[in-house]
Write a structure and sequence with these properties.
The chain is α+β, with helices and mostly antiparallel strands and 716 residues long. It folds into five domains: 3-97, Transcription Factor, Stat-4 (Orthogonal Bundle); 100-279, STAT transcription factor, all-alpha domain (Glutathione S-transferase Yfyf (Class Pi), Chain A, domain 2), CATH 1.20.1050.20; 281-444, Sandwich (Immunoglobulin-like); 458-524, Orthogonal Bundle (Recoverin, domain 1); 544-709, 2-Layer Sandwich (SHC Adaptor Protein), CATH 3.30.505.10. Helix content is 48%, strand content 15%. The chain contains 23 helices and 22 strands. The strands form five sheets. Strands 18-17-21-22-16-15-14-19-20 form a nine-stranded mixed β-sheet. Strands 1, 3, 5, 7 and 8 form a five-stranded antiparallel β-sheet that branches. Helix 8 runs parallel beside helix 10 (221-250), helix 9 runs parallel beside helix 12 and helix 10 (221-250) packs antiparallel against helix 12. 31% of the residues are buried.
Length: 716
């Protein structure tokens, strides 16, 4: 019994206290009631101290409310539907308040940059005033020297006092200007620290997640705006400090601050500029083969790929100077025995330009590069000291260029995220698994190319998110909490909480699932490929529950009317399979859950799933076919749920002198399911129906079926 059900059985005085807890609408009692199972399986205590996890939980809660709202719509429960619509809107409003956090952060950065601009303008004004003072002093000093021979000693003494006073004021103002530049550079240091260590680092982490499917914004336009504004300020500071040097040459004296302090400030300004520009050289588009747009960072030898580095500092005059970018691979690769080495083929040197960037910034778009493996010497493949297979080897493509601007020469270097290089298409999914695992777990800015020599464990909280991204990035639907719970159960067994569970790299992609000859990862990718090829519309519309344990399937169907069915993915098909189960209530009150053998790409290539469901029949004891599928769970009439996918009755027929025919999928009830089917459904009260193959149907039966189903009329 759930905690909530137990709670509802307390004495009246305690129930009054429970009632008081739900007086406001922040978290309605209805939500606690209908979502009790899901709520009690989440690690809320950990979410208290983990903001990222709390955000995930909150988003999942909204998904659960949406799902429940959809159920009420299907069940035509108007009042509950109305209430959950309101709850969803209220909670979405709360979630939306998190968006101003980013807005406030952006506002804070804008204020810092505007503050830096104002500081530079103030220093420039102070410098102009100081220059006027110095010119005035210089004029009076030269005038005094010229008139010295014609003036009395007392007059000379008075003039010297005036000049000394002017020099003291000038010295004081010079010190103030130096102090203002010093404070300005301190603010610049703080700004760069935020811009590079926080904002740019966060973008790089977002890009990592986006590469493995996360629906995140990786636009660089805002960062480019901030980097450019900061760089322009620092270049202006550098020019102003140069102006101070010129004033110091015209007039200097003992302990002149322009002579003792200005050089250090100029050195600091150049250092900040260099650091800023070096950080501004990034890889905007990670290496990707055109045919595998959803799987970047996996490159096949002899296949073309593209990659684009970009400079986030827009300087107009830079466009007139040729900045050549050179690409290379594994500049600082591990020197382990057997570690493969590659050459980059194609145009590996390209000039940066503004034509290949939508924002008008500088970038170099390498579009037709290829990798070719170098001939191995002693050792060769398979002798890697770290025992890494080829899909666990990580390589890096680096880019180098040089910026020459306003007497500043800066060597720039950046590199891609680690890539996996394969030589055969059969290695693609294993390579993609490595990319997902690395970018899910490794956020260190330093590339760890030996990551898979000792790969870390993956917490379920992170892995579940990444698995959901695989579906949302390839289709229009992510995995909901119930589906992820089934996957967690498949990996870890039945548990109360999965948030703290961890999985090894080997268990994820290398070791076979129990009683199977394939890994969890290959099984999941097989299902995803099946969806993309044959089931995408049905999946996107939410008509496939998909990932569902057999125990949960039974609990959903057993109390539903006869003919209620649901769709779920097979657990025994390596390349993906989908099956459907329906409930029958026998005259003695017993309920039977019947399931067909999975349909794979072999079946779905010949006939769409919607047509299978449309015409599916079972041969009853009297050899009379009957339609067993009536309502898609929870209670949607089959034709209402799948009617829009049905093929037109005349489709595929060109010669109308023949009778129209349909391919009817018929099963016969088996008294004892075959052994291989029992692995698919091992509950005592489940019976399975095997899809009948046309070439196995006895001739007389086939003739009867053809006579029965070959007609111009619609047969139900």
């Amino acid at each position: 019994m759930s905690q909530w059900e137990t709670l509802k059985q307390l004495d009246t005085k305690y129930l009054a206290q429970v009632d008081s807890l739900y007086q406001n609408e922040n978290f309605p009692m209805d939500v606690r009631e209908y979502l009790s199972h899901w709520i009690e399986t989440q690690d809320w205590e950990k979410a208290i101290t983990n903001y990222s996890l709390a955000t995930i939980h909150y988003q999942n809660l909204l998904d659960q409310i949406n799902n429940q709202y959809s159920r009420f719509m299907q069940e035509k429960q108007f009042v509950c539907q109305h209430n959950f619509k309101k709850y969803r809107q209220n909670m979405q409003t709360v979630l939306d308040t998190s968006q101003p956090v980013d807005f406030e952060r952006h506002q804070d950065m804008e204020q810092k940059i505007n503050g830096l601009k104002s500081g530079v303008q103030a220093c420039e004004q102070e410098l102009k005033f100081l220059e006027e003072q110095q010119d005035e002093f210089d004029f009076k000093y030269k005038t005094c020297k010229f008139q010295e021979s014609h003036s009395s000693p007392k007059q000379v003494e008075e003039e010297m006092k005036v000049l000394q006073n002017m020099l003291n004021i000038l010295d004081s103002n010079r010190k103030k200007v130096i102090e203002k530049f010093s404070e300005l550079l301190k603010e610049a240091v703080k700004l760069l620290d935020t811009l590079v260590k926080e904002d740019l680092a966060e973008w790089k982490r977002r890009q990592q997640k986006a590469c493995i499917g996360a629906p995140l914004d990786v636009s660089l336009d805002l960062l480019e705006k901030w980097f450019t504004a900061t760089a322009l300020c620092l270049f202006q500071v550098k020019r102003l400090l140069k102006k101070l040097e010129e004033l110091g040459i015209k007039l200097t004296y003992d302990k002149d601050p322009f002579k003792t302090q200005r050089p250090d400030l100029e050195k600091q300004a150049i250092g900040l500029l260099t650091s800023l520009i070096q950080s501004a050289f990034v890889v905007e588009t990670q290496p990707c083969m055109p045919i595998q747009g959803k799987m970047p960072l996996v490159l096949k030898t002899s296949s073309q790929f593209s990659v684009k580095p970009r400079l986030l500092v827009k300087l107009q005059e830079v466009g007139t100077h040729l900045m050549k970018v050179n690409a290379c691979i594994d500049k600082n690769s591990p020197n382990g025995k057997g570690y493969r080495k590659f050459n980059i083929l194609g145009t590996i040197t390209k000039a940066m330009n503004t034509m290949e960037s939508k924002s008008g910034g500088l970038c170099a778009d390498f579009r037709h590069l290829q990798l070719k493996e170098q001939k191995s010497g002693i050792g060769g493949k398979g002798s890697n000291e770290a025992s890494l297979v080829v899909t666990e080897e990580l390589h890096v493509i680096s880019f180098e260029t040089e910026l020459v601007y306003q007497e500043l020469n800066v060597v720039l270097e950046t590199c891609s995220l680690p890539i996996v290089v394969i030589s055969n298409a059969s290695q693609l999914l294993s390579g993609w698994a490595s990319v997902v695992w690395y970018n899910m777990l490794c956020s260190d800015s330093k590339q760890n190319l030996m990551f898979f020599s000792n790969p870390p464990l993956a917490p379920w909280s992170q892995l579940s998110e990444a698995l959901s991204w695989q579906f949302s990035s390839n289709t229009k639907r992510h995995l909901d909490a119930d589906q992820l719970s089934m996957l967690a159960e498949k990996l870890f067994g039945v548990q109360q909480k999965y948030a703290d569970c961890c999985i090894t790299w080997a268990m994820f992609s290398k070791e076979n699932l129990p009683n199977q000859n394939f890994s969890f990862w290959l099984w999941l990718q097989g299902i995803l490929e099946l969806i993309k090829r044959y089931l995408e519309d049905i999946w996107n519309d939410g008509n496939i529950i998909g990932f569902l344990s057999r125990k949960r399937e039974r609990s959903l169907l057993k109390r539903k009317p006869t003919g209620t069915f649901l769709l779920r993915f097979s657990e025994s098909c390596k390349d993906g399979g989908i099956t459907f189960s329906w409930v029958e209530h026998l005259p003695n009150g017993e309920s039977k859950i019947r399931t067909v053998q999975p349909y794979t790409k072999t079946h779905l290539t010949n006939i769409p799933l919607s047509e299978i469901l449309r015409f599916y029949k079972v041969i009853a004891d009297e050899n009379v076919p009957e339609h067993p599928l009536l309502y898609l769970y929870p209670n949607i009439p089959k034709d209402e749920a799948f009617g829009k996918y049905y093929l037109e009755s005349h489709e595929g027929f060109q010669n109308h002198k023949y009778l129209k025919t349909r391919l009817i999928v018929v099963s016969e009830r088996l008294s004892t399911p075959p052994d291989e089917i029992m692995d698919e459904c091992n509950l005592e009260d489940i019976e399975l129906s095997e899809p009948m193959k046309w070439d196995n149907i006895p001739m007389n039966t086939l003739q009867e079926l053809m006579e029965l189903f070959s007609t111009d009329s619609n047969i139900e």
